[in-house]
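My main concern about presentation is that the manuscript never shows what a single data entry looks like. In essence, backbone conformation is discretised, so a fold becomes a row of integers matching the chain in length. An entry of this sort, consisting of the sequence and the corresponding backbone structure tokens, reads as follows:
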Amino acid sequence: RHRRHEMGLGKTPMAITIAAHCGKGPVLVVAPPVLLDQWCSEILHWWPSLTRDNVQVVRKGSDQPDTDARFVVVSYSILTGTVKQPNLHLRATASGEPYGTIIVDEAHALKTPDSNRTLALVPMLRAAAHVILMTGTPLANACATDVYPLLDGLCGGPDPIAMPLLKQWNVRYCLEARKVWRGRGRPPPQ
């Protein structure tokens, strides 16, 4: 179900409350670095039975997921890592299982299908039982390509839905891509 909320109207408390009711844990929160401490504070505020020991804020790529953490809060860049050091150990729980619930703050950051962060995060989203994508930034002037990674991430879980290939998606839903791919301009992404 789609909810459109402007800044400051409760996306974060709503996501924390939904995660509390999902019961699949631990919960991974992916957010820009400047919001990590804010997420920790909000989690403790809206889920008062948790303590600071239950919320792990990952600050370095070398940090390991904590077995006691109910929430793991990490930035896009730390989770993604680099090509040489992809931080794969952060892409699963301390026990090696996929995260049951993943909250992605500023999810519009995943709009580029071939970016490192999108390539790292979408498989994790597809493996999770519950995914919450949050953004206050509309994709109003965007091509359908920009929503493809977000929808692809939402189509996983216990009853996965097969998404068409990106090229097929663009030919069907992105008018601009149709013009470009008919021999004028760059080739379609693979």
